[in-house]
Amino acid sequence: MQNKLTIVIPTKNRSRFLGKLLQYHSGMNFGGTILIGDASDPLEYQKGKEIVESAQQKLKVAHYQHTTNTSLIEGINLLLAEVITPYAVLSGDDDFLVPGELDRCVQFLEQNRDYSCACGQQTYVFVRRLSDTSMKVDRVTAGYVMNHENASAMQRLVEYVSHGRANNTFSVQRTDGMRERWRKASDIGLDTTKYHGCLHEVSVNVVSLIQGKQKKFQNLYHAMLRHNERIEATSVSWDIRWIERMAKWDWSKEVLQMLDWWAVELMAFEKLEKEKAYDVAEAVFLSWMGSFITDCRNSLFEKNNLAPKYRKNSKEYILQSLKKMALVRRVWERVRGGKKISLSVFLDKKSMYFEDFMPIYRELTEQGVSQESRKHAQ
């Protein structure tokens, strides 16, 4: 099944992580294709080129040079245009995808055409860099575990806004649909680095959920590193600053186009009338935007003077589902991965995660393997 899959990896100035990623996939005998879009500065690009050339002895990996001002989203689009396999999956340059679980996801999608994507258990691995070649793993947290398998696109969106975002950005997807969604979001005008790609990513995820179900397996599938070079990305203060930047943005053009896109997809896949589709698109958008939009959301409740029961597939129906959440902020905490898991669970030979996690752990720290893994394996 791996010969039907391509891993898409945008990168910039992080050759040491790229080396670990390719070494991991080489050691796991990954049989699919890997495409790397490299927007690094000249010196780092040369390092990356040498790493890729060495990995090509065992892997089907191609290395594309992008300009240094290529944004993350633009880089993804450029790579997706090069994919020729029927399935593709996006990966960070410092993340690890378990090849066996990728196989499972491809096989599942082959047999289930009503699903737009499939993935598995995602974890966040918090590490401290000791040197360019070794790290220390401090802790592991659980990722998003919600399936979206309801037959109704409307119900899948209710699950999305009530329980945190869909984790389909790093899922195995059909290449044609994935390419179309990422390109459409860029055509709307969401491709810009100053918003960190988040609006683009959410828009793609929402449309993916409208177009098909999401399958989430329970085995370890994706280990996403959280390390000291990205500590701001996991801090509350970073979230606050990001929300403030988003709040200052002129929404007039891009958001309206984005809601148009969502509404058109709802009309096609859920057979909603135009007015109702736009109401639902607006409700989903307002729910996603986070805590600073809460006042706006509450005013909608007050303005509509909502009754205890609402028409199914109406804006009021989704808004009432949103109201059941205690705090919008809790959704963000779930997205970041709120449940801490003891590292010993992953290093225990009897654990269901052991075989999949140990090769990842080995790439991160030789010292950790020599001490802790022997202790748990004995």
Descriptive report:
This protein has 378 residues and is of the alpha/beta class. Among the domains are: 1-94, Spore Coat Polysaccharide Biosynthesis Protein SpsA, Chain A; 241-333. The chain is 50% helix and 18% strand. Strands 1, 2, 3, 4, 5, 6, 7, 8, 9 and 10 form a 10-stranded mixed sheet that branches. Helix 1 (15-27) runs antiparallel to helix 15 and helix 5 packs parallel to helix 10.
Kindly summarize this structure in a few lines.
This protein is of the alpha/beta class.
Key words describing this protein structure:
Spore Coat Polysaccharide Biosynthesis Protein SpsA, Chain A; 16 helices
Can you tell me the CATH architecture of the domain at 1-94?
Alpha-Beta Complex
Terminal Cα span: 34 Å
CATH superfamily of the domain at 1-94: Spore Coat Polysaccharide Biosynthesis Protein SpsA, Chain A
Percent of residues in beta strands: 15-25%
Estimated helix fraction: 40-55%
Helix-and-strand structural type: alpha/beta
- Per DSSP, the total helix count is 16
Low-pLDDT regions: 230-240, 290-310, 324-337, 367-378
The average pLDDT is: 77
Calculate Rg over CA atoms: 21 Å
CATH domain class name of the domain at 1-94: Alpha Beta
Order of helices and strands: EHEHEHEEHEEHEHHEHHHHHHEHHH
Question: How would you describe the shape?
Answer: globular
Q: Biggest β-sheet: count, sense, barrel?
A: 10 strands, mixed
CATH topology of the domain at 1-94: Spore Coat Polysaccharide Biosynthesis Protein SpsA, Chain A
Total beta strands: 10
